[in-house]
Amino acid sequence: VVTKALKKQMIIPDWERFVGDMGEIFEDVRGFNEGELATYIPQLSRVPPDSWAMSVCTIDGQRKSWGDSLNPFCLQSVSKPFTYALVHDDIGPEALHAHVGQEPSGRLFNDISLDHNKKPHNPLINAGAIVVASLLKNKTPLADRFDFMIHACRKFVGSGYIGFNNSVFLSERETADRNYALSYYMREHNVFPKDLNLQDTLDLYFQICSIETNCDSLAVMAATLANGGVNPMNGERVVNNRACRDTLSLMYSCGMYDWSGQFAFHVGLPAKSGVSGDMIIVIPNVMGIALYSPRLDKLGNTVRGVKFAEQLVQKYNFHNY
Ligand code: DON
Predict the structure, then answer these.
(1) Cβ(104) to ligand 1 under 6 A?
(2) Running DSSP on this structure, what letter comes out for residue 296?
(3) Structural domain includes residue 320
(4) What 3-state class would DSSP assign to 153?
(5) pLDDT tens digits, one per residue of 269-310
(6) Per the domain annotation, does 197 fall within a domain?
(7) Number of structural domains, the chain?
(8) What is the distance between the terminal CA atoms of the chain, rounded to a whole angstrom?
(9) Could you list the residue ranges that cross the membrane (predicted)?
(10) For ligand 1, atom 7, which residue shows the shortest CA distance?
């Protein structure tokens, strides 16, 4: 790496300048302090509302963080692409997509609806993610499934931070009427694999949403997706190439909920947001970016995260097209 850096052969040759530009956008975006915290999970509404953090990690392992980048938060829906990638890696795309589609839903993330095949539209809305959770190592006891997931998250972050927030898990489970309704509706339509224990599946889904990390570590998770499924910090393969590619395709078309089309149009990069206010952006073969600011817009996306993405592509030509 040192030789590469000296020869200016790193993926971002002028790192100093890039870091300066990113820092400027970061400070600029701090001014967008509108938006509300998610209140439907009480614990999520009790975090400091004005936290703002950003981290980048390139596929060469160049890293930089700004703001509250070591503050912990729950992955929430940012877990969805990672769960998808892991199940894809484990059982393959055919078996997985026998239960869930690939189309943007054009609806809110927790909408009770299925596509014309009576499957959830895609793995990145709640319905689809609950089904993907039902496929995760589902022949093993619930404790083993959770272990598998948290160990996999540790592989995605390398030496970074992964924890579990039990109060968010309990709070979410208490207030999950919509996800229960969605799941019963899906069971009625035989979406799940046979012999499913619905409560176990939902518990696993809530537990995955309550896995905790920080911006600094989340950037490495995003960079692993940018790097074809190989963690750039330790060279360990976490998921296969095809699983990684399919994950990015879905993030591109469905990652920002009902704003995905506009995000693809204006920003042109795969991304995923969660109701805790976290967000990842993947620039394939270049870097992963993690953002955290808990104030959300009406669709559930972090206000500052979206503003940052827009300003990023104005400054750097990262848009895919
Ligand atoms: O299922 C839920 O309601 C949440 N635990 C996850 C939702 C989420 O992060 C959606 N994000 N915008």
Answers:
(1) no
(2) B
(3) no
(4) helix
(5) 999 999 999 999 999 999 999 999 999 999 889 999 999 999
(6) yes
(7) 1
(8) 30
(9) none
(10) 77
